[in-house]
Amino acid sequence: MNNGASATSPHNSFQTHFLDIHEVLPEDEDEEGVIKMEDNKVTSSKKGLQKPIKLRELRRPQRSFNRQVSLETGFSVLGVESKAKDEKKVLRRSGRSFGGFDSANRVGAEARKGDFNIFRTKSTLSKQNSLLPTRKEKEMETQRAEGATGLNEPVNKSVPVGRYFDALRGPELDQVKDSEDILLPKDEIWPFLLRFPINCFGICLGLSSQAVLWRALSTSPATKFLHVTPFINLSLWLLALATLISVSITYLLKCIHYFEAVKREYFHPVRVNFFFAPWVVCMFLAIGLPPMLEPAKLHPAIWCAFMGPYFFLELKIYGQWLSGGKRRLCKVANPSSHLSVVGNFVGAILASKVGWIEAAKFLWSIGFAHYIVVFVTLYQRLPTSEALPKELHPVYSMFIAAPSAASIAWGSIYSEFDGCSRTCFFIALFLYISLVVRINFFTGFRFSVAWWSYTFPMTTASVATIKYAEQVPSVLSKGLALCLSFMSSTMVSVLFVSTLLHALCWKTLFPNDLAIAITKKRLVKEKKPFKKAYDIKRWTKQALTKNNSGDKEFNGENKVV
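The line above is the sequence of Guard cell S-type anion channel SLAC1; the predicted structure tokens follow.
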């Protein structure tokens, strides 16, 4: 305790001692404090005597609080100190962020902006090399450690796959549900690299597949009557190449500066499949090379350079499907999983073009085996699988891509569109028709980069139809090839214009990528309402009534025995 200064009056025969008492928090559990107590009694003027000050040594407990026990309710009410401790454990939701992370970072009246460094490459090392934190920041760190346990853990560790399905919604699981928390503020514009998702390679897929389609339209005997100029193929090929280069450079910068965000996308059950997309685009560009630029024979090194990374990545993903665990196929299967399969068929087409027929057969067999597994898993909907939200229906068009590419690859390997090729083509055609008649699946969604998922499967089906029309020339087959090609090109044109408008005019193409900022666990739980006194009384009466009835039954049984 702190002793106040004593004031004495020379004119009076008595002294008055003023005492200011302040609580001093102990620095250690075993610390013994010496408390000096002074008697504040006023000495009698008649006696002129002053009582001696008594000194006592007391061992203070670590914490002191008032405890009031209500005999009526049986509940205890703690003092202010325990309430303050409970308040520290509550992760409050902030208006600045979608969850409570931003509010936890505020010290006093100083509101810090979103700490985007948590997703930077080697963010832990940069934090260690930063300036020493102040006392207030240390207190806030302690509060976050108590009240928001696990905030930093999701950044460095993988998020469980079920968490993505629980916390996200949308056509590509890219929107956070209203009841969830995120690690970054929602109302601030994030850095551009953090807002640039991996599924932007879907744009490259759509344009490169269009280059393959228009090459087929300009060179196929079945479409000679159209007199398609090869310059369309050349312009589309150059556009696809420029788009691939720009998207690849941008995402490479994201890998350099925000590698933690890239890791989040890799563990995302939908976006992990788009890591196959850059290599599929490269193979499409090699297949759709304009005739005026194409050499007599492609070098096998081109196939090795594009198919090698794809093959090693699918070894990793297929191994997770096969070995089980949290990322087994029945847990993560979604229509975008076809992207990890269709590359085998595209690689088989390119292998046949470079003259490696056996390698093409090898890839075709791998792709077909895993396509059957993915197809059955998505059709069967095992009880152990994560339930896909309704918003994932638009990317169901991915069902068309694998059988269409399989039919083209088989015909390229054996130089004939025979029975196996036609079987795969008819499967793709049936799936195409079954999706077209359910047009309501594709309505009611805001524009996003995910819409490019329509174009790639539709274009592949159009190329397969052209190959079929070459083997079975008829008005029906040629008309079907022309119709599907027109639909595919129209879709690509509309999406390309819409993408330019959203990117350049409206600036809405790349909103904040909330999907990468979800927490590993749901931090804020709904608080149960506090039971009032009369509710507790009623609950106590019910409990006593049950106990009395139980005793009566027990006594009755004893009497019977």
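Note on the example: Strands lie at 7-8, 15-16, 33-36, 55-58, 68-69, 76-77, 168-169, 175-176. The longest strand covers residues 33-36.
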